[in-house]
Amino acid sequence: MTDLAGDIIGTWHVTLIRLVSSMELQSTLVTTVDVESGLSVVSKCYTVDESARNTSGITLLFTHCVGSHKEQWEPTIQHMFDIQQLKDEKYRIREAWSFDWQNHGDAAVLNREALKTRPGGVSVHEWAHSIAAFASSLRMKGHRMVAIGHSAGAGAIMLSTKDSAPSKVPFAALVLVEPAMVSRELFYAHYEDRMATMDFTVRVTSARRDKWESHDAAFEYFKKRFPWSSWDTRVVRLLADYGLQGSSPCVSLKCDRLQEAVSYTEKESHFDATTLLGHICHAVPVHVVWGTENDLM
Q1: Which residues does residue 174 pair with via DSSP β-bridges, in sequence order?
Q2: Of 2, 283, 284, 292, most Cβ neighbours within 10 A?
Q3: Tens digit of each residue's pLDDT (9 = 90 or more) over 17-43
Q4: How far does CA 113 lie from the centroid of its chain?
Q5: What is the C-alpha to C-alpha distance for residues 144 and 82, in angstroms, rounded to an integer?
């Protein structure tokens, strides 16, 4: 880990490194500060056994949806490591990195005071800037990266390429899961329906419960209610364990519900990401994953 300590990652500076483990995954928690915005950015690097020594392997970068956190990807990351062990080394995972949006997860806790001066939240463009800085940093030199984003996180992945010529995009491929992306023309063609959905989501998010007696009590609450009741139970458990802060007799959401709510209102980032996709897809393989149920928009 000494090669990372003190490394300048774009406009980031590493301030904390801590080794933790989750099941068979080994994860390094890294907290950085974006000098431009002054906001902390938190990520985790996951490896298994000696995977980091496989310099010909693939490094995965993960981003989450609105209202979630970097650890939501752990079951997926674990499964991906498990199923690739017999593959040629160049197709095995070297490292997997997962990032908190600056007003979500552990980053929201570190940025609590700064976020009080940001009623408009943290834009997807700002999140994308920090991802781009990381991808172009010395720490990632020589890594063959594949970026995987979910919902708003898919938009962040796309926007992280905006300052790169299509032939210079730092990613070998992109995977967009349920991307929150739409063209401006299509959005306004169905403006009333989309705004009604957005307003409903903001209203419900702003008023929903955000405190419980314990992490276990929160888990029991989540697993019985939409949308969490439709999730993999492991991901619900991770939300209760990593998406909340504090201890009994009171735990609360790390992501302030008003910060989460305002994140749903951003439109320009979705338009810009869609425009970028039209350019990038000619130079980089892009795989888009859609759910089988249309349960929101």
Answers
A1: 147, 286
A2: 284
A3: 344 434 488 999 999 988 888 999 999
A4: 21
A5: 20
User: Rounded to the nearest 5°, which phi and psi values hold at 209?
Assistant: -65, 140
Phi-psi region of 279 (alpha: psi -120 to 50; beta: other; left: phi over 0): alpha
**Element containing residue 126 per DSSP (H, E):** helix 124-135
Whether the upstream peptide bond of residue 227 has omega within 30° of 0, thus cis, is: yes
Side-chain-side CA neighbours of 55 within 13 Å: the count stands at: 4
pTM given for the model: 0.90
CA triplet 207, 99, 146: central angle to 5 degrees?
130
State whether residue 253 is helix, strand or coil.
strand
> Between the CA of residue 126 and those of 3, 35, 38, 116, what are the distances in Å?
26, 12, 11, 17
What pLDDT was estimated at residue 166?
Answer: 84
Residue 1: pLDDT band by 50, 70, 90 thresholds?
very low
User: Can you tell me the distance from the alpha carbon of 44 to that of 34, in angstroms, rounded to the nearest whole number?
Assistant: 16
CA distances from 165 to 7, 132, 143, 181, 280 (A): 26, 13, 19, 21, 9
Per-residue model confidence (pLDDT) at position 165: 87
